[in-house]
Structures are given as structure tokens and as C-alpha cells.
Amino acid sequence: MQAITLLGSTGSIGVSTLNVLAQHPDKYQVYALTANSSIDTLFAQCVQFEPKIAVMLDPQAASQLAERLAAAGVDTQVETGTQALEAVAAAAAVKYVMAAIVGAAGLLPTLAAARAGKHILLANKEALVMSGQLFMAEVAANGATLLPVDSEHNAIWQCLPMVSEQHNYQGKGIRRIILTASGGPFRDYDKAGLATVTPEQAVAHPNWSMGQKISVDSATMMNKGLEVIEAHWLFGLESEQIEVLLHRQSIIHSMVDYVDGSVLAQLGNPDMRTPIANALAWPERIESGVAPLDLVAAGRLDFAAVDFDHFPCLALAYRALNSGGTSTTILNAANEEAVAAFLDKRLKFTDIAQIISQVLEQIEPQAGDSLDEILSDDTQARILACELINQA
To answer: What gap in Å lies between CA 226 and CA 106, rounded to an integer?
Structure first.
């Protein structure tokens, strides 16, 4: 029995992870579940999986959860606050940590898991986007194992050769890696149409079921930009070796192009339980509950080059990666604030990229090799982004 902490258990990745775990009660035991304020969902999860600890960031929600669990006779200890998140991520009883908190809020507990040498199932791409150099140094220094859960990075990982030095694939015969992207709900819109899209349209992804923030990121293709940055740190490849290709069906999840002309691809139905199960069981394989892929029913696989004018957020992500230092921290912070404003209907969809661009231009990045620098630039970028949003 392997103990696991789920950071962000009430989100789409957390729910999918618990679905996989429920199929293998003889292999995995839930040690801790965490959420921000989703009381009903976390209560139901605690009743089903009986974790030792439940953490809610919102103190009032934590108090209500504790009362409901006590009334239901569930012996789960309820805690609150960021320190509690870090504690369950680093707990001695835990081997696996699913890092599925969306956004910058997931950085500190995921870092805590790295410093404690855990097997980290990384679905929180912002941990690497914000602090790639620092995070990877902590993984190496503390003997942590980093297992990618994003469908694209998990696909690449499955297609790469085993290497003695984790996360360094330079000199291994790889020409490039190709991240596939569905293009989101607005891939066929013209610029005039993009200016009038609504949050309701943006969160209606054609292929995947995801949370609101990630769905908007998919619509702008910032999500793919963050994945380019994540791939740089996960696989030790330069930006020019990381390409993005539009693939409407989301069946090929990514590819590796080798110098001998071979291209290896990982295929499957668009269901996050596949990469979750793969990372959980590595180096073995377990049932995930995902239906077998029917290529005959799929019928065809389409591909197209990315139009960076249509998806300026992707271009901004490459720009930030190439700038180095805390540029990617600044990019992520500005994006989070702009997306939140769009979801609140305080900002137009097409203004998201403009806000991010202005923030990148106005803040001088630092080296980014210390947590203080990372958090400082994250805060500075958010303040500036909010000011620009209010002026828009």
C-alpha cells in the first residue's frame, strides 16, 4: 500500500486521480486531501476515502467541514492554511504527492514535496513555469522523482529513452519534441469574432473537461505556452527544440522526433486518467478505466501549423522563456490576473494577451534562483496587471 497526498483533490485532476485510486484499493491509500473552499466535494471525498487529514485553505470552510465530518462519524483531522498544505505534502508517511492545485497557489506545497524527496505527480505546471531553475535543483538535491501528468508531457515522457540523469535529454538523438494542441473553441474564429467571445464560450472546450482557468488558457493557447516552458525544464531541451502543432482530435497527445527520422507518438482517448495511471504505476502499468482507442471510429487525424498572430499568448510564452530569469514568473502572474478579470467580465478576451505583453515590457526580470526573487516578481506582476486591467 502506497500512501498519497492529493493537493487539489476537488479539481478535475484530483477527481480523476481519485477515480483511478478507487479502482486499486489494494495498491494505494489516501493520506491527505486538500481543497480551497469546495466543502461539499471534499466532504464526499473524505466519506469515501477516509484520509487521515483534510486541508482547506479557507478557515471558515475548514470549520464547516470539520463539523460535518464529525457529525458523519468520519475520523479525518481537518486543518487549514498554507503551512498545513506544505506539511501534508512533506509528511513522512507519504510516498506520492499529486500536485494538482491550479496556478501559483500550488508552488509552495509542491516545493515542499520536492524538498522531502517525494514521488511528485506533477499536474501543476506553474511550479516549473514560476521557478523552474529552483524547483529542478530541489528535485535533484533531495532525490525526488518528478513524474509528468499533463497529457502532453506524459506522452513525451513515454516516447523518450530511459536516461541515467533525469530530465536531461540533450545528446540522446532527439531533434525536437512536438506538443500537440487542439486549438480550443476559437481555433476557427477570425479576429473580429475573438473580440466578442464570452467566458461561457471560452470554458466550453471541444475535447477536454477542465476547470475554468485552464479552459480559458486553452482558448488563448497560453496553456500550451506554459507547457512549452514546462517541457524545457522537464526534458532539458531548448526552446527551438520544442514545437507546437495543432491537432483537432486530441488523440495524439505529443510526439518525439529523432535525428534518424523516427517520430514516436503516444495515442489515446482524451481522458486524464490515462496519464494519471501511467505516472502512479510507473514503471509498471495499471487499469485506468479509460475506454480503448478506436482508430476506425476516429476516422482521421488532422494537423496544422500554429498561427502566432491568432494565438499571441503562445508567442509571449516563447518570448518569456527565451528572456530567462523570472520572466516566466511574470508571464504566469499577469496571465492569472488577466484570465480572472476576463472570467469576471472585466476584460475582453483579446485584451488578455495585451495585458501580459505590457507587464512583460514594464518589469525587469531577476535571476530567479531564489524563492524571494520569484515571489517578489510574482507579486509585482500581479499589482501591475491589476492596474492595467482597471485602465482597460
So the answer is: 15
Q: Cβ distance 77 to 54 under 8 Å? A: yes
User: Do 267 and 292 contact (CB within 8 A), yes or no?
Assistant: no
d(CA 195, CA 209): 24
The three grid cell numbers given for residue 287, joined into one nine-digit string: 487499469
* Burial classification of residue 207, based on how many CB atoms lie within 10 Å of its CB (0-12 exposed, 13-18 middle, 19 or more buried): middle
Q: What are phi and psi of 199, to 5 degrees?
A: -60, -35
Picking from 207, 254, 266, the residue whose alpha carbon sits closest to that of residue 230 is 254
DSSP 80: E
Q: What is the distance between the alpha carbons of residues 77 and 140, in angstroms, rounded to a whole number? A: 32
Catalogue the long-range contacts made by 196-199 (C-beta closer than 8 Å, 24 or more residues apart).
197/349, 198/345, 199/342, 199/343, 199/345
Phi, psi of 336 (to 5 degrees): -60, -45
> Is residue 97 within 8 Å of residue 9, measured between CB atoms?
no
Counting every residue written for the chain, the total comes to: 392
* CA distances from residue 58 to 42, 82, 231, 259, 392 in whole angstroms, order as listed: 13, 10, 32, 51, 31
pLDDT in tens, 62-109: 999 999 999 999 999 999 999 999 999 999 999 999 999 988 889 999
Rounded to whole angstroms, the Cα distance separating 238 from 215 reads 27
User: Strands 252-258 and 263-267: what pairing?
Assistant: antiparallel
Q: Can you tell me the distance from the alpha carbon of 388 to that of 392, in angstroms, rounded to the nearest whole number?
A: 6
Residues 6+ apart with CB under 8 A from 176: 237, 241, 242, 243, 256, 257
- Residue 161 is classified by DSSP as P
Distance between CA atoms of residues 172 and 309, nearest Å: 33
Written as nine digits, the cell of 254 is: 505529443
H/E stretch holding 42: helix 39-49
pLDDT band at 204, cuts 50/70/90?
A: confident
Q: What is the pTM of this model?
A: 0.92
Q: What's the rounded Cα separation, in Å, for the pair 227 and 207?
A: 18
Give me Rg for the CA atoms of the chain.
20
Which residues, in sequence order, are CB contacts of 288 under 8 Å at separation 6+?
20, 23, 271, 273, 274, 276, 277, 278
Is the backbone peptide bond immediately before 292 cis, with ω within 30 degrees of 0? no
